[in-house]
């Protein structure tokens, strides 16, 4: 069953008529993960922001985004707002600056839950604690009372994921959720996503420039470059038998990198 | 937080000493001999004998250091000497005029805060709209308009033509409105601009993007943006309190408002040094204390400073 | 020079420049183009309406308002420029010295600045005028005294930023004397920012000078000055309110032009800010 269908998505900068994202097409089926890869500036982030109408006012988005029988580009702002968070959740790249520095994490999470679900504050607080516990956060009540600057980037990232899960959306969009983290936290966060998929079966759009992570998560892969679709297909096929020169280049570089890393490690250990 | 307050309190001590020294030195830079001035304002011919007697009376025969210490210890007990003109204690003169100035400043501050926050927030929310553009035009001229001219125009329109308010003096509650509005005009322009720009800058922040991404209402987002931008605007607003009180000088003179600004200008014409000196000292101390309070208050809003160990 | 280029493409900035230059020129040429003697009373024609002979009419003493405005530029604008000039010289010198030599010299200058900056500038000006007595020179002195500390502090921090750059380090290592480094490297480095601030402040100084004259503490009668003219107009407000218009509008225009020009220069110096503005439009 197709949850989300994107047709000819184009983003144009009205200030200088530059095309930032050009004719992107993809489908997202229920209980699958779509990986979007590409170098920075390839338009992968912009594509996802465009899905939820989060682009700057000077960017004009055209095409068609079908979700739940509606075209997200033509629905009212209020409908779109209700879809954001509740139906399509989003995890952002820079967790350190994603929360209001003057409010506690708990307050911000409770506020979001109250906005979307008809629960009172107390019930929302319990839901937040449960969600944090699911993310393996040991003292959820203590974390709730902290301000963003008192928590680490990895912790904030987990709070963000917990909040997204608590809203039980149909789709989660994760925009480079691991980029700002160190490698240990990176692995943990990826594992959270894996578990999240296994537990809930939520469809996931995972954006990254890290091929390894995408390979371990995604069923489908969309490769982007300069705002255009370079390759799109099943993950297995794309990684093992890349059709486009650019994808081949990406995959080969990665193999040679890991190969040389492996060689180096063997030399040291052996 | 305690440490922060303590550190700030200790920090102002040298500044207070500097201020008192400067206020004291002021008299010494005057080209005229205070003793001679004190005699002249009372229409006594300053014969050498009279001047010498007056010097002893004013304590001017002592050395500079001793005079400063005497003056400082007297000032600490609120003893600023007596006016050369009417021989009243300076503290009593200031005390008589201060309530009028404070009333004027408080009403102006209230007008300023209400007007600039509401207009500033509206402009930021409807950024780029016609209303925003018109407001920006008005605000721009508001910062350039001399307050004495604005005051005269308001007085002519509302007091002379429409006869809604008294032209001058302190006569009933309505008489405070024109001076207060005149005084706040400049500040409103400045703060509308400040709050608007702060809000717009904050709207570019990542936390706003995430707030949108998780589907918060625009009204909720504006609240977050407002709280964040208020913090930086607050510092500026607090700094304007003593500036407001200092700014009353012009307005009080236009509207014949019996406050300390008018007292000071009259003292300048009369060469009544003790009053000028006390006025300067009072203003500077007020300025320093207000800054301190604003800093502490805005620090208490910021969890990053509040929870500092 | 890039800044200049950007500035000339900004229409509003050009208009402001033209206004300021025009006002200065009118002031300088006042003795030639003023139709009448600005201080000579002629009670027979007091409160005359606008006419070819008296373009803006006459005041309560029958003096030509237009001529008084022109001569007023002399007093107001020229005094403001003198004040800013002196403030800049003092501020730059002390700022350079404090930032270059650091140590106790810096400490002494900065502590003095701290104390001066703890007075609101309006109070500082009143204090000095109060002690020296009302009058034109004293107003200028008071304005300089109230403002130089701001400049010293700003220039010092700019100098310190520059001192940590490699070209200055190289110059110092290669044994150039301090005077040379200050003149050739530091001064051009900080001049740009200082000019912006000075432009913005010129409007502020004009307001101050005319405010003091309005209170009767500045320029003394019968010298024509815009603030003074407003003060005289105040007394005849009920009978002849139009007397308030000309000097008030004159102050407003010049101050607005200076403020706007300052904003434009800041935009020109900071292209990033400029782009944001384009977006906002």
What is this structure's SSE topology?
The complex is a heterotrimer of chains A (270), B (309) and C (281).
Chain A: E1 2-13, E2 18-29, E3 33-37, H1 44-51, E4 59-67, E5 70-71, H2 77-86, E6 88-91, H3 105-116, H4 121-134, H5 140-144, H6 153-166, E7 171-175, H7 183-200, E8 203-208, H8 211-217, E9 220-225, E10 228-234, H9 235-240, H10 245-269
Parallel strand pairs in A: 3-8, 3-9, 6-7, 7-8
Antiparallel strand pairs in A: 1-2, 1-4, 4-5, 9-10
Chain B: H1 2-29, H2 34-41, H3 48-58, H4 64-76, H5 90-125, H6 130-144, H7 147-161, H8 177-203, H9 206-213, H10 218-254, H11 260-270, H12 273-301, H13 303-306
Helix pairs in contact in B: 1-12, 2-3, 5-6, 5-8, 5-10, 5-12, 6-8, 7-8, 8-10, 10-11, 10-12, 11-12
Chain C: H1 2-9, H2 11-28, H3 30-33, H4 65-101, H5 103-117, H6 121-132, H7 136-163, H8 166-173, H9 178-215, H10 226-235, H11 245-269, H12 271-280
Pick out its properties:
heterotrimer; A: 270 residues; alpha/beta; six-stranded mixed β-sheet; 10 strands; globular; B: 309 residues; mainly alpha
How is this structure best described in words?
The complex is a heterotrimer of chains A (270), B (309) and C (281). Chain A has 270 residues and is an alpha/beta fold. The N and C termini of chain A lie far apart (51 Å). Chain B is built from 13 helices and no strands. With 309 residues, chain B is an all-alpha fold. The longest helix of chain C has 38 residues. The chains are: A alpha/beta (270), B mainly alpha (309), C mainly alpha (281). Chains in contact: A-B, B-C.
């Amino acid at each position: 069953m197709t949850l989300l269908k994107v047709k000819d998505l184009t983003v144009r900068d009205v200030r200088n008529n530059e095309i930032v994202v050009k004719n992107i097409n993809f489908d997202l089926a229920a209980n699958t993960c779509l990986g979007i890869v590409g170098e920075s500036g390839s338009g992968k982030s912009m594509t996802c922001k465009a899905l939820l109408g989060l682009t700057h006012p000077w960017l004009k988005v055209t095409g068609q985004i079908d979700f739940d029988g509606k075209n997200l580009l033509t629905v009212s702002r209020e409908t779109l707002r209700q879809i954001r968070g509740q139906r399509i959740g989003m995890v952002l790249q820079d967790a350190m600056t994603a929360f209001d520095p003057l409010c506690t994490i708990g307050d911000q999470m409770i506020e979001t839950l109250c906005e979307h679900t008809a629960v009172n504050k107390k019930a929302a607080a319990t839901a937040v604690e449960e969600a944090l516990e699911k993310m393996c956060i040991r003292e959820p009540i203590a974390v709730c009372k902290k301000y963003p600057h008192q928590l680490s980037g990895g912790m904030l990232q987990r709070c963000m994921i917990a909040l997204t899960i608590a809203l039980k959306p149909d789709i989660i969009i994760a925009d480079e959720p691991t980029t700002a983290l160190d490698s240990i936290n990176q692995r943990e966060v990826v594992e959270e996503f894996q578990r999240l998929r296994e537990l809930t079966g939520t469809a996931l759009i995972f954006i990254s420039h890290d091929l390894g992570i995408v390979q371990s998560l995604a069923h489908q892969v969309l490769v982007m470059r300069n705002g255009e679709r370079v390759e799109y297909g099943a993950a297995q096929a794309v990684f093992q038998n890349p059709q486009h020169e650019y994808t081949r280049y990406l995959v080969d570089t990665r193999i040679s990198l890991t190969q040389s890393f492996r060689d180096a490690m063997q030399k040291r250990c052996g | 937080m305690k440490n922060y307050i303590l550190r700030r309190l200790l920090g102002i001590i040298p500044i207070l000493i500097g201020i008192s020294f400067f206020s004291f030195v002021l008299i010494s830079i005057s080209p005229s001999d205070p003793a001679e001035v004190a005699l002249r304002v009372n229409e006594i011919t300053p014969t050498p004998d009279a001047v010498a007697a007056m010097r002893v009376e004013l304590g001017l025969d002592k050395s500079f250091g001793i005079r400063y210490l005497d003056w400082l210890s007297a000032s600490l007990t609120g003893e600023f000497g007596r006016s050369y003109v009417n021989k009243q204690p300076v503290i009593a003169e200031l005390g008589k005029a201060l309530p009028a100035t404070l009333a004027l400043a408080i009403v102006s501050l209230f007008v300023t805060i209400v007007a600039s926050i509401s207009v500033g927030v509206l402009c930021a929310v409807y950024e780029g709209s016609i209303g925003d553009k018109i407001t920006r035009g008005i605000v721009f001229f508001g910062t350039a308009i001399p307050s004495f001219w604005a005051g005269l125009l308001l007085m002519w329109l509302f007091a002379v033509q429409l006869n809604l308010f008294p032209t001058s003096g302190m006569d009933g509650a309505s008489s405070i409105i024109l001076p207060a509005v005149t005084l706040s005009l400049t500040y409103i322009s400045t703060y509308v601009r400040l709050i608007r720009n702060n809000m717009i800058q904050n709207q570019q922040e990542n936390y706003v993007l995430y707030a949108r991404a998780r589907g918060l209402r625009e009204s909720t987002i504006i609240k977050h943006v407002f709280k964040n931008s208020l913090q930086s605007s607050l510092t500026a607003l607090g700094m304007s309190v003593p500036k407001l009180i200092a700014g009353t000088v012009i307005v009080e003179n236009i509207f014949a408002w019996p406050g300390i600004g008018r007292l000071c200008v009259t003292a300048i014409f009369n060469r009544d040094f003790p009053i000028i000196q006390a006025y300067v000292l009072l203003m500077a101390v007020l300025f320093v204390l207000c800054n301190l309070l604003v800093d502490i208050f805005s620090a208490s809003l910021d969890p990053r400073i509040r929870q500092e160990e | 020079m890039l800044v200049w280029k950007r500035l000339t493409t900004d229409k509003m900035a050009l208009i402001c420049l033209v206004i300021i230059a025009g006002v200065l020129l009118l002031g300088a040429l006042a003795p030639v183009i003023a139709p009448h003697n600005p201080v000579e009373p002629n009670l027979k024609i007091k409160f005359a309406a606008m006419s070819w002979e008296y373009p803006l009419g006459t005041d309560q003493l029958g003096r030509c308002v237009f001529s008084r405005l022109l001569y007023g530029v002399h007093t107001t604008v020229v005094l403001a420029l003198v004040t800013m000039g002196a403030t800049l010289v003092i501020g730059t010198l002390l700022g350079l010295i404090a930032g270059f030599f650091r140590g106790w010299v810096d400490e002494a200058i900065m502590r003095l600045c701290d104390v001066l900056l703890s007075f609101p500038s309006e109070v500082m000006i009143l204090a000095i005028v109060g002690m020296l007595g009302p009058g034109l020179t004293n107003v200028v002195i008071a304005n300089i005294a109230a403002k130089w500390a701001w400049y010293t502090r700003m220039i010092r921090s700019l100098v310190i930023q520059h001192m940590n750059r490699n070209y200055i380090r190289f110059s110092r290592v290669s044994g150039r004397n301090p005077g040379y480094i200050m003149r050739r490297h530091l001064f051009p480095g900080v001049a740009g920012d200082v000019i912006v601030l000075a432009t913005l402040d010129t409007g502020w100084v004009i307001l101050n000078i005319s405010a003091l004259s309005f209170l009767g503490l500045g320029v003394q009668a019968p010298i024509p000055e815009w603030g003074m003219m407003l003060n005289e107009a105040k007394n005849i407000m009920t009978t002849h309110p139009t007397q308030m218009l000309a000097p008030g509008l004159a102050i407003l225009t010049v101050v607005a032009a200076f403020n706007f020009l300052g904003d434009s220069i800041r935009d020109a110096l900071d292209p990033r800010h400029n782009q944001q503005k384009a977006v906002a439009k």
